[in-house]
Amino acid sequence: MLDMNTNRRDLPPEIARRRTFAIISHPDAGKTTLTEKFLLFGGAIQMAGQVRAKGEARRTRSDFMAMEKDRGISVSASAMSFDFKEFRFNLVDTPGHSDFSEDTYRTLTAVDAAVMVIDGAKGVESQTQKLFEVCRLRDLPILTFCNKMDRESRDVFEIIDEIQENLAIDVTPASWPIGIGRDFIGCYDILRDRLELMDRADRNRVAESIEINGLDDPKLAEHVPANLLEKLREDLEMVRELLPPLDPKLMAEGSLTPIWFGSAINSFGVKELMEGIAKYGPEPQIQRAEPRQILPEEDKVSGFVFKVQANMDPKHRDRVAFVRLASGHFERGMKLTHVRSKKPMAITNPVMFLAADRELAEEAWAGDIIGIPNHGQLRIGDTLTEGEALRVTGIPSFAPELLQGVRAGDPMKAKHLEKALMQFAEEGAAKVFKPAIGSGFIVGVVGQLQFEVLASRIELEYGLPVRFEATQFTSARWVNGARQAVDKFTESNKQHIAHDHDGDIVYLTRLQWDIDRVERDYPEVTLTATKEMM
Ligand code: GDP
User: Fold this and answer.
1) Which long-range contacts link 430-434 to residues 24+ away (Cβ below 8 Å)?
2) Could you say which residues bind GTP here (predicted)?
3) C-beta separation of 476 from 399 below 8 A
4) In this structure, are strands 329-331 and 396-398 parallel, antiparallel, or unpaired?
5) Burial state string for 312-332 with b = 16 or more CB within 10 A and e = fewer than 16
6) Tens digit of pLDDT for each residue in 135-162?
């Protein structure tokens, strides 16, 4: 029997042991280091440092990635699988920069929980807050790791207060730090009554773990200096009075987060966090879909595309669609139905990402992420099933906040430009609109940096220098309504009308006033800032 706290013990064991989660954090809080230690304890790598080393080897393959490195951001996300004890962890990487929030949002539709890493000296930072809000939209369970406890950190109660206040979530300590900064010696494991002592001499060594019989156990004094022990007892007394205990139900609803204290670089506290993920999970969840929801334990396989990445391997101009399996037991070679086109697809070369390497996935279960190489058939939001016409919902496309016109440096290359733009639109890297009047394209993004990334990718991947330039438009809205009403509206507003890469009609404007006017003058037409991808 798996040691876990679940209300759905009827899941097949292979599904029940899966934990699919993402890490959210502000840059520099220690996400990469923590990922490395996860892989180390998951047995996926032999030595810490390999993730970075591999990351760098990959980056040198293209200047685009070098740009990513220069800016210290992670533009592309991937998924990694590894085992921890009897559990299978799937860690889905989120892009770190705020300009990529839409991508992040979609990534978070593919996970069942998030680990929030904060820097003990800094507390809740801006990016943590933003990502947290995204998790909140989905009521994702959150496990918190307060990192860098080996250095001078803020007062622990103050950190907890800040999380509770700024993020409006209750906090329950799963462990408690003993000493601070240079005096930090380890943690008291509240969930298991154990003393975990950090080894400062060997960063890759797992902490020494000592079973304790409650706070009065004389063994404590053998390992903890008297002044620190006194403070620990006082602190834990206050914890008991002021903070709630760990209630798995509240955690699953996303209203309570357990917090572990540790030091990723010293491998300290990481195992306890992993044990927490294993125990409190949660296991693969029910997936929202139309016309019915999907249960992970269903026999038939289903899944959805939450991310498309091009040119992962520059030698093959392939794209990989990342699919989160929502149900069933997938086996390589299976024929699945691509619901949008109603066409069958034989999935012959699915890949799993074990540590930083791609491997053929012979099988996979609900909760797993597989990569399906394809030539552009698979788009974000697509559902794959064994035939049933299900459509996974809740993967929105947001209206861009910045719009710019784009032109090829060489006017003869307009066709190439169109092809490149379509690829990025399908990847979800940008919105591309073709105005009804005139030539050229308008590109929409969420953050300015995306224009730069696009320009460098178009140049690198298509050998096409491009220029972005100002347009008269600042907002885009999707146009919905009965066919006749929409036709009438578009006819009389042609200079504002464009089509997105799916052919859906979009209204471009520069004034909120225009949007209000449309809503007044055309009551049968609705303008929306999001569109469900399908
Ligand atoms: P990311 O930007 O969130 O991926 O952060 P990194 O994992 O790259 O870490 C940022 C910096 O903090 C690096 O220089 C790490 O070596 C350092 N770091 C990570 N964890 C710890 C820790 O537990 N203690 C200390 N002192 N430094 C750490």
Assistant:
1) 430/400, 430/454, 431/397, 431/399, 431/400, 431/476, 431/500, 431/501, 432/500, 432/501, 433/403, 433/476, 433/498, 433/499, 433/500, 433/506, 433/508, 434/498, 434/499
2) 25-32, 93-97, 147-150
3) yes
4) unpaired
5) beeeeebbbbbbbbbbbbbee
6) 888 889 999 999 999 999 999 999 999 9
Give the sign of the dihedral formed by CA 78, CA 83, CA 84, CA 89: positive
Pairwise CA distance, residues 257 & 482, whole Å: 45
Cβ-contact 82, 355 below 8 angstroms: yes
In angstroms, what is the span from residue 26 Cα to ligand 1's centroid? 11
Which pLDDT value is given to residue 76? 40
- C-beta separation of 148 from 129 below 8 A: no
Q: Which of 77-81, 287-291, 450-454, 520-524 has the lowest mean pLDDT?
A: 77-81
Phi, psi values for residue 54, rounded to 5°: -65, -40
Pocket test residue of 71, 97, 265 for ligand 1, highest count of atoms within 8 A of CB: 265
The pair phi, psi for residue 118, each rounded to 5°, is: -125, 155
Ligand 1 proximity of 33 Cβ (cutoff 6 Å): yes
- What is the C-alpha to C-alpha distance for residues 172 and 179, in angstroms, rounded to an integer? 19
From edge to edge, which strands make up the β-sheet containing 186-189? 175-178, 186-189, 194-197, 208-211
DSSP assignment string, 232-257: HHHHHHHHHHHS----HHHHHTTSEE
Residue 15 CA, distance from chain mean position: 20
Atom of ligand 1 nearest to the CA of 36: 7
Q: Is 383 exposed, middle or buried (0-12, 13-18, 19+ CB in 10 A)?
A: buried
| Ligand 1 pocket, residue 301 CB under 6 Å | no
CA 147 to ligand 1 center in whole angstroms: 8
**Cα–Cα distance measured from residue 391 to residue 369, given in angstroms and rounded to the nearest whole number:** 18
In angstroms, how far is the first alpha carbon of the chain from the final one? 39
> pLDDT tens for residues 22-79?
999 988 999 989 988 998 888 766 554 444 444 443 333 333 444 444 433 333 437 8
ipTM for the predicted complex: 0.99
Closest residue CA from atom 19 of ligand 1: 30
CA distances from 462 to 406, 414, 423, 501 (A): 15, 12, 11, 19
Share of the chain above pLDDT 70, in %: 87
Cα 239 to Cα 160: distance, rounded to the nearest angstrom: 11
3-state secondary structure of 172: strand
Taking each helix axis from N to C end, the angle separating 226-242 and 156-167, rounded to the nearest 10 degrees, works out to 20
